[in-house]
């Protein structure tokens, strides 16, 4: 008899006769448990097979773009739009007063937007002083001081007694203030001479009946506009009460109340025209007669203009621009303490920062009262479409991905003390996401590249002679993260199903054998 081939002896599925098997209640219960377990695991594994998983991969950032876009919407709580300026600084250069793609909106004291201020524009160049006033301030003071020096007590008295009060809030260390001083003194002298001529017309030869003291008091009544000045270095309390942030601030008071600040050319003629426009508007509302008549204009011309051709040319130029500073365009600053800046910046892909600072071509700011408290409504990097896609398709990106691209949204940074400002440091991480099937033709970087932000903020102290600024420093990480959609291979799925069946059967079998051995030993 020949031996059986080896393949006949290979049998991993030998059968035991049925009459040798014994069924038990315990075996039935464990069998049901095994079937339920295998069914549940089968359904979960099938769901995973048809589902999508996100895999993260870290590589060196290979983005070769020269610039990156910064999207922002920031409200400065105590800074006028005319002063709010954005500067950009990076390792490759500095750009001041960025105006392209930047919009400004005035914000009132309640945080309500007042009106659209159009696109940001470069600040207008104005004349810092009257070029026709050649005398120095000391020479003008030789025959007396016409611009009245005011302090805490006298300014309140002047507000009560004078219908029109025009005040120069200045600082002795301010160069613009020193340049303006002779022009301001001449303006005060023009008003004083106009008052004399008006009084002389009224008394018509009766001047001999008045003492010098009575004549001077009567002349004060005839003043078209009282011109005064406040030194904010010696009288800081007055300037703080008036909310003076920059020097010089030329402020008009009407009937004791703040009316408007003058921001036009600082020449005698231009200021007289501006004062006349304000008085005309105010008198028309009250139905009374103007004090600033043609006599005041004639006196101003006599003081400031002669026959030199260059001075006539200058007068014509400022006349053409007079409409820019007319009284009809005045703003009540109390209604507009803040400014909302929004738009986007294109910056170099190198470490740098952009900061918001108060700056003016015609004024010097007082560091003691410059407040850069701000609220970040929105701040993100890159094109906005990847973030929009992530919002609509949350399953395509990791949890909290959208929040990480706008990590500073809604944050408020308030400074409570002088010479303080918040500085923000942003680590920007390039993040690549898969292109959605809805945009098959738009397979480019603006749809696939987003930027996550890791922010850190701190309160910084500034020297007493430095104007604080809200600073946003950024640095791009050299590591990029890529999120890719992955699917389970079919052979992995089959292998796992077999493991579920075999593993469950084996584990339950071992459990049943253990229980059987324990109960048999106990019965003995």
From TrEMBL:
Q: Can you give the residue ranges of the Thioredoxin domain?
A: 124-280
Pfam families per the UniProt record, alphabetical? COPIIcoated_ERV, ERGIC_N, Thioredoxin
Instruction: Give the GO cellular component terms, alphabetically.
Output: COPII-coated ER to Golgi transport vesicle; endoplasmic reticulum; membrane
Keyword Membrane on this protein?
A: yes
Q: Mind listing the UniProt keywords for this protein, alphabetically?
A: Membrane, Transmembrane, Transmembrane helix
Q: Main subcellular localization, coarse class?
A: membrane
Record-annotated membrane-spanning stretches: 27-44
Question: Where in the cell is the protein located?
Answer: Membrane
* SUPFAM superfamilies assigned: Thioredoxin-like
Superkingdom per UniProt:
Eukaryota
- What PANTHER family does the annotation carry? ENDOPLASMIC RETICULUM-GOLGI INTERMEDIATE COMPARTMENT PROTEIN (PTHR10984), PROTEIN DISULFIDE-ISOMERASE 5-3 (PTHR10984:SF37)
Protein name from the UniProt record: Thioredoxin domain-containing protein
Native organism is Ditylum brightwellii
Q: What is the lineage of its organism?
A: Eukaryota, Sar, Stramenopiles, Ochrophyta, Bacillariophyta
